[in-house]
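Re-run with default settings, no changes from the original entry. Doing this only to confirm the output is reproducible before filing.
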Amino acid sequence: MIRLPFEHHPGVHCGSTAVADALRAAGVEASEPMAFGLGAGLGFYALAAPALTPSHLVIGRSAALERTACESLGVPCVERTADGAATAWSGVREAVDRGIAPVLSTDLAELPYWRTRTRFGGHRVVLAGYDLDRGVALLADTDRPGLEEVALDVLDRARASVAPPLGAAGRPWLEIGPRGPARPLAEAIPDALRRQTTEMLLDPSGVAGVSALERFAAELPAWHAQANDEADRRRCFRFAYQCIEVRGTGGGLFRGLYARFLREAEVVLPGLAALGLAERMEGLAAAWSRLADGLRATGDRTAAGVPPEVIAQARALAADERRFFEDLAARGPR
């Protein structure tokens, strides 16, 4: 058996837990909230996929979290892909043999220990080792306290999936490290805050960030009419609740996790506390949790239509997030 000598620290989110584990294997210590914040991890996407169930879903994290965290810290990070199962396994196995803990993209529904049939592509895990005699890989995964053993053929199915929201072709993986001295947090945090602000504000297309959140709030009343059928309608609202409150977000669509990053950042940059960013982000997290409850209740209703108070909550959240990031752009660290 080959097992990398890093300690897996269970967390709440697959992306930030994975990158923190991989950084730890490379000799860089970062908490899960710090890894998330350095990765400019907040985001917002509202996706419509009529051919799937649910036909609407929301995502609250950046797709580039892991790569951005490494860039913020000055740690090498290379993304690789492979077309075939054998080549893909050989690539990540060789990384482990070099002392690197690769971050794999998987479909959560194909990982047997999750015991779910709901597909969720782009779920990040870390390959911590393998046992060729038994034909298993050792995976570090979010809140799991130990390592999970997964048969190699099962792992390949999970890696080969291109299921939404973040599944991608080519069985992609990240190799983080080896590294020289990591960039000091006092330099990395201001850059990460600026990048987070840019990514939330400067996409006027409505595909990502605050503009996508405003579009979501405007289109939410039409979800009933756009659903494929009654079962899909219920699933859209219930799944939106899960994506905001349950599925590795730490509650409040990752905003609670980002607030914890801001609290840690205040220790490194004492002047940050005067801006009140952590308190405001905690308020946004609470507002997202309230909206999630409203969406879940909407999915349980038999009557058509989204309640006016739920629509109002979504619109208020869009306005509040725009104000937060505009204030951060104007008053944040330079």
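The mean pLDDT is 93. Residues 197 and 325 are 6 Å apart (CA to CA).
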